[in-house]
Amino acid sequence: MMDVVLVGCGAMSKHWLDAARQIDGLAIVGLVDLAADRAKVRAREYELAGAIIGTNLDAVLDQTKPDAVFDVVVPAARREVALSAFAHHCHLLTEKPLADSPENARAIVEAARRAGRVHAVVQNRRYVANVRRIRRFLDSGAIGAATSIHAEFFVAPHFGGFREEMPHVLLLDMAIHTFDAARYMVGGEPASVYCQEWEPANSWYRQGSSATAIFELGGGRLFTYAGSWCADGFRTSWESTWRIVAEHGSLVWDGEDGLRAEVARPIREGLFDRTEPLAVPPLDPRDRIGGHLGIIQDFVRAIETGSEPETRGADNIKSLAMVFAAIESAETGRRVAIAQEG
C-alpha cells in the first residue's frame, strides 16, 4: 500500500486523480490547497471521505505520514513543496515544469539527491505511443543516425486567465513538451540555442505567443522549433508535427496517427536517389505509455523496486534548461550555451 498526499487541487488535479484511482494499492490520504473548499470538492468528487483536508502542507504531512507527495501547484510554489516533501521523507512526483527558474530546479534536484528520495516530473509526451515507436525505429538504424529534427506547433487556444498575461507564454507553458520529446527521440544532449520571440498583430496574448528556435543537440545534429499560440487555421496536433532527417532517409509524423518513413536506395533516378517507404514497427510491449497514468505507474514502480523513473528530475532538468536558455536567447538576441545539467 502506498499513501499519497496531493497538493494543488485546481483543474489539473483531476487528471492526476483520474489516473491514481486506477492504480491498485495507491491511496490518496490527504488533499492540500490554499482554498480548502477546492480540496473538499475534489474529496467529494473522488469519494475520498477519509482524506485529510488542509491548507498547510507540512501540517497534513505530519498528520498523514505518507510515502509520497503529488505536486500539482503553480510553478512558483514548487520549490517550497519539494523541500517540504523531502523534509518529511516523502518521494515526489511533480507536474511540469520541474521549477520556475534554473536556480530552483537545481535546488530541487539536489534536495532529492540528498534526501535519497525518488523525484520525477510529469513529462507525459514521452508516454505517447508514436514517440516510443520513433525512438525505437531510430535506434534500429533503419535510416541511419538522425542529422536534423524539425518540429512545428501551431494552435490558437483562447485560454483566458493567467496564460494570456504571462511572459514567454509559449516557451514557458508548452514548448518543454516538444523540447523533451525531441531530446528523447534522438538521444540528444542540448548544447546551445538561438531563439526569437514575437507578438503577431493577431495575438491576444501579452507576450511571447510565437517563437522559433534552433538548438544544437550534439553530434552535429540540429533541432528546429517553430510555434505559435495564436495561429488560426491548419491547426497542428498538440504533439506538434515532425520531420526527422537521417543519414539514409527521413521520418515524418503528423503528431497523431500519421507516421511514415522513407529510406534512400543506391539507385540514381535523374537528380535524385530512389526512395522507398519503410514500415515503422508497432509499439513494443515493453514500452510504457498512458500519459499521467503511465507516468504515475512508472513512479510507483521506481519506489517499489529502488530503480529510477524515466522522467526523473535529474534528467528532466536538461529539457527545462532548453526552455530557460531559449528565453535568455530571446531576451538578449544572442546564441546561448546550455549548461550540462543533471
UniProtKB/TrEMBL annotation:
<dbReference type="Pfam" id="PF01408">
    <property type="entry name" value="GFO_IDH_MocA"/>
</dbReference>
<dbReference type="InterPro" id="IPR051450">
    <property type="entry name" value="Gfo/Idh/MocA_Oxidoreductases"/>
</dbReference>
<dbReference type="GO" id="GO:0000166">
    <property type="term" value="F:nucleotide binding"/>
</dbReference>
<dbReference type="Pfam" id="PF22725">
    <property type="entry name" value="GFO_IDH_MocA_C3"/>
</dbReference>
<protein>
    <submittedName>
        <fullName>Putative dehydrogenase</fullName>
    </submittedName>
</protein>
<dbReference type="InterPro" id="IPR000683">
    <property type="entry name" value="Gfo/Idh/MocA-like_OxRdtase_N"/>
</dbReference>
<dbReference type="InterPro" id="IPR055170">
    <property type="entry name" value="GFO_IDH_MocA-like_dom"/>
</dbReference>
<feature type="domain" description="Gfo/Idh/MocA-like oxidoreductase N-terminal">
    <location>
        <begin position="3"/>
        <end position="121"/>
    </location>
</feature>
<feature type="domain" description="GFO/IDH/MocA-like oxidoreductase">
    <location>
        <begin position="131"/>
        <end position="251"/>
    </location>
</feature>
<dbReference type="InterPro" id="IPR036291">
    <property type="entry name" value="NAD(P)-bd_dom_sf"/>
</dbReference>
